[in-house]
């Protein structure tokens, strides 16, 4: 099943799972698309903490996406 996610900056990601969301987020990055999805998730979380002042979980793609949604950085489109 495809889910459409809207990022705070207006970008849209259509993904089949939290892991697919993370992969799409990484390959769509304008500045930092190197390495594995897991490496990217950790770097993204640290950048978010520096810029927004909160830390999101990097335990799994599921926890990462849930935290992004809970913090309002990502919204799910119906």
Widest sheet: strand ordering: 2-1-3
Globular, elongated, flat, extended or rod-shaped: what is the shape?
Answer: globular
Ranges where pLDDT stays below 50 over 5 or more residues in a row are none
Largest sheet: 3 strands, antiparallel
Taking Cα atoms only, what radius of gyration do you get, to the nearest Å? 11 Å
How do the strands and helices of this protein lay out in sequence?
Blueprint: E1 3-7, E2 12-15, H1 18-27, H2 37-52, H3 61-70, E3 74-77
Antiparallel strand pairs: 1-2, 1-3
Helix pairs in contact: 1-2, 1-3
Concise synopsis of the structure shown:
The chain is of the alpha+beta class and 78 residues long. The chain is built from three helices and three strands, in the order ββαααβ. The protein has helices at 18-27, 37-52, 61-70; strands at residues 3-7, 12-15, 74-77.
Commentary on this structure:
- With 78 residues, this protein is an alpha+beta fold.
- The chain contains 3 helices and 3 strands, in the order ββαααβ.
- The protein has a 3-stranded antiparallel sheet with strand order 2-1-3.
- Strand 1 (3-7) and strand 2 form a beta hairpin.
- It is globular, with a radius of gyration of 11 Å.
- The mean pLDDT is 94.
């Amino acid at each position: 099943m495809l889910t459409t996610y809207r990022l705070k900056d207006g970008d849209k990601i259509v993904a089949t799972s939290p892991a697919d969301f993370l992969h799409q987020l990484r390959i769509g990055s304008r500045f930092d698309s190197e390495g594995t999805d897991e490496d990217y998730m950790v770097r993204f979380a640290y950048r978010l903490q520096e810029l927004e002042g909160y830390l999101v979980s990097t335990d799994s793609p599921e926890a990462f996406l849930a935290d992004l949604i809970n913090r309002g950085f990502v919204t799910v489109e119906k």
